[in-house]
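[Automated response] Your request has been received and processed.

Submitted sequence:
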Amino acid sequence: MDGTYFGPRLGTKLLILMSVAMVAFPWFSYQYLSEMEDFLVDSQANAQLLTAEGISTLLNGRTDLFYELPLSPEGYEQLYAHALETPVNIDGKPTDWEDVINFSVTFGASDAGPDANQFNLILGEHNGQVYALMHVIDDSLVFRDRDILRLDVSDHARITFTGLDNRIRRIVIAMNEPGVTSAYTMDEDWRYAIEGDSDNRVQGFMSTVDNGYLLEFRVPLDLFGSTQRFGLAVADVDDPDTREITSVTGTLPSAGREAFGLALLKSPEVLQIIEGLGYSGANIQVIDDQRRVRAEVGNYRGAGPSAAEGAFLADLWFRVVRELLEFTASKTNPDAEEVVVNRSLDGVPSTQRRWTDEGEIIVAAHPIIADEEIIGTVVLKQNTDRILEVRRDALLRVISFSVLALLVFVLLILGFSVRLARRIRKLGAEANSAIDLYGRLRASEIRSETRSGDEIGDLARSISGMLTRLHQHNQFLENMPRTLRHEINNPLNALSTSLQNLELEESESGREKYLEAAKRAVLRIGMLVQNLADAASLEEALESEEFERLDLRMLVENYLVNCRTAHPDRSFEYFGTERAAVVAASDFRIEQLLDKLIDNAIDFSEPGAVIRVGLASNSHEITLSVSNPGPTIPADSLRTVFDSMVSVRANNPDNRLHFGMGLYVVRIIAKHHGGSVQAENLPNGRGVTIRVTIPLEHEPRAALAAAG
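Generated structure:
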């Protein structure tokens, strides 16, 4: 690379700022219109709320209209069966579904891959019959071979439900060819769907379309029992030779559970009450306390643009300007409907404004009460077309008064940009001078803009901190060859000497001695490489691990039992809290942390020494401590002892291999759990204590994540 970088220059960015100014300044002039609009919208919102209150009054006390449906189990898909005025002709055509076609629900992700299928589902109910229309996306249709008994070796649909006897039942809808389908009752798991009994209760018809097929069928509602729980799934077979199932897409996204949904029937009684109360530009919904739509009438969408050319152009200009102004000025809430419904079900009538593709609407909701309990809510949505017409005329006049203010603002932006560019160039020059042409650091920090309180100051401090970390890293890299050479040369010399002596030694006992020394030298080199590999991959491995609730006191006590067996030449004592100490942690990593702490304590203690392990807690955190008698840590190394490949205690009673990686691993694991580590010498130079502090489980999870 020649050091030339391409991107928008400051002049280009200035033009962008000026473009933003062209929108921002008319916004200030636009505020008096917003005040007028707020008054009109508030008036309309109050009128809507009064209307919703009147409708709710008609439904107050009518528990019979709300409690005849079963409750929806948490986590299951709600499958709405819309009330149909007439029965559906089972012919594999969507012509009978025109009134509810917009309520189609899609299952299966379109970007899940070439082997995953997808289907759209509409459910309806009429006279005790549940009707379904499934549009299955499938580029390769494989029909059932009549000569093959198995029912799962072709494209087919599955119905899973709880029957009248509260037992799980399964039905396969098989397709031999386009036309009438066959239904079979399956008593076994889907994996053993070899054959089944014909079931005439389910009648269906399949027809092909360009991108798959349409499956239309009906099922008696009483087939699903009193719970009305059922699920639908589509099995896709692409290869007519192997006839293996490529994918199964169901109505329940959660894996590992029965694919039950809930057939929710919209109430015709409620619909009959409210259908005469609707009016132009308004939508009325009655929602029960399970947030299920029980009835719905009307449409809040506007009548569309005027046919007159002049009105159409004015409306188009208004829409363009409105989009620019309301990009920042919009007072609408995209979650308005959910907020209003939640407040109403909590007993608080409320209104909100929401912006849609069709325009702005006002959402009002009033609770429905029976026996001092909230059993549902009336939601009334209405557009603001009339208000927008008034605002449109005034808006066109506002634009002309904004030009002067725009010019002043552009001058201010220009002056600010010049000053900003000068500061950035100064910061960039100092940052470039900190590193020479060969990549060597000339300075470990920068001074320009580091005391500024704005974003440039933040950037300067970030660059300075980065240079400091790079300096520390360079020092680490400079020290690493020397450290590795020292750690590897000793076992290499031992290996070389042992091999030389092995050639000269004639006695079997002598050869065995030198062979054992060579094996130990190879083992030491292998341990060094393994420690380096473990430390290098540890942080990456920790990222994919999940925490669970863990009693740290019980884990430590069980761990010490194993230590006493594995290290009989050392004594292990526990002290501290006897109560449960629950933390959010990975038990494997906590044991790995204990391994490193105990190994460190053993390395620097003599046989027969007492190693003390303790737990101390307060209201927020718990501290794990491991103490061992032995050599102390120099005072100036107490903070660096947790860095990689740092070993500052030269006296090792057992002359065991020690690479300075154990405490580094301890620090990484503690940091991942939102904790910290520290080392301190025991009084009178009698040994060392390592302390690991971890937040207790009731601490906010966000704090754990931030610390990790």
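Summary generated for your ticket: The chain has four domains: 20-66+268-401, 78-265, 434-537, 545-707. Residues 434-537 form one domain.
If you did not submit this request, please reply to this message.
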